[in-house]
UniProtKB/TrEMBL annotation:
Transmembrane segments: 6-29, 50-73, 85-106, 118-135, 141-158, 170-190, 210-230, 251-270, 282-303, 324-347, 359-375
Protein name: Acyltransferase
Transmembrane keyword on record: yes
Domain called Acyltransferase: residue spans: 5-299
Keywords: Acyltransferase, Membrane, Transferase, Transmembrane, Transmembrane helix
Any Pfam family the entry gives: Acyl_transf_3
Listed GO MF terms: acyltransferase activity
Record-listed E.C. numbers: 2.3.1.-
Domain of life: Bacteria
Amino acid sequence: MHWTQWLTLGFQIMPLFFLAGGHAAGGSWARARAAGGTPAGWLGRRALRLLLPVAVYSGAVLLAVGVCTAAGVDADTLALVGWAMGMQFWFLPVYLLLSALTPVLYAAHLRWGARVPPVLGAVALVADVLVVAVHPPWVGLLNYVLVWGVAYQLGFCWRDGLLTGRRLVPLAMAAGGVLAFAALVALGPFPVSLIRVTGQSPSNTDPPSAAMLAWLVAQAGVSLLAAAPLRRLLDRERVWRAVRPVGAASMTLYLWHMLPVLVVAAAFYLTGLAPEPALGSAAWWALRVPWLLVLGALLAGVVRALRPLGRGLGVLYERTVPDAGLRGAWPLWAGLALAVTALARFAVRGFAPDGRFPVLPAVGLALGTVLVALARRTAAERLERPEAARAPDRV
């Protein structure tokens, strides 16, 4: 329904993920560098922390795809389910690329400070003009790094206090971003929806558009204004006790949140147990309440059931994590390239493209994860810089 597209202004929170990611990565890289860590060592540790749970999730989905393929499940149904289980993966290759670029981006931040995000944004605008006007192949892919890179770079600025010295700065970001978004939607070719709508062109997310960039700046400004009161709220022990477990389960929620949707849909709709009133009718809206409650309960059960797996992955991470002082080891870079390519493939085509098992992406993700886990410094490097191996790296 067209009017519900306005709700995406509140539901589209990916700018906040990249803003918080930049804030965390800037601090982590600054600490690692001060302790004698290297870019390769730092990146290997961060990449592995993401890739281990992703590999487990992907392995489970791929196993299900293989079983369903052997059982003769309808190819179109399998392709749709495989796409639904992989559509959130677009975030991972973008975030891994920004992580790989963090030492360079942070060096630019230390030299030019708050001037870097506007420059990235200007280049993104040029790329978006080309996408809308000329439709050149592959140019739009740049904006996945440029637009989300603006939020990532703003995270550096936030951490180092460049945006919080005066209240006027976040106010200007919030107001300017909202006004720019309104102008781009009213006068330009961009839709209001901040999620992809079938048949809608151009899209604000695929690739990220100038309108998404404007809303990103607005969200960052609002976040800066809200940060201080929210920190005071989180200082209350009861609130922190409630928030902390959700934060600890964030990766599980991110990876597995579509599973309850598919299970409940299959159990209630494919079997005819649930009524299917007309879309947008009063009965349809009334059914959203039990639908969300059932999904929430099932998701809570999934998260609880996966807790032992999370603890096991934590142990595996500590045993296989690359050394903080790792230098330019080829397994790390080769593994990262394979993993990014495979994750991008899953994000675009799903886990069962055309109803078939995706052999090459599956092998690429598995091999890439193993290579990142195998990255180590040589014995000579350990003897040369033993202090780096002992340096803590808070990821």
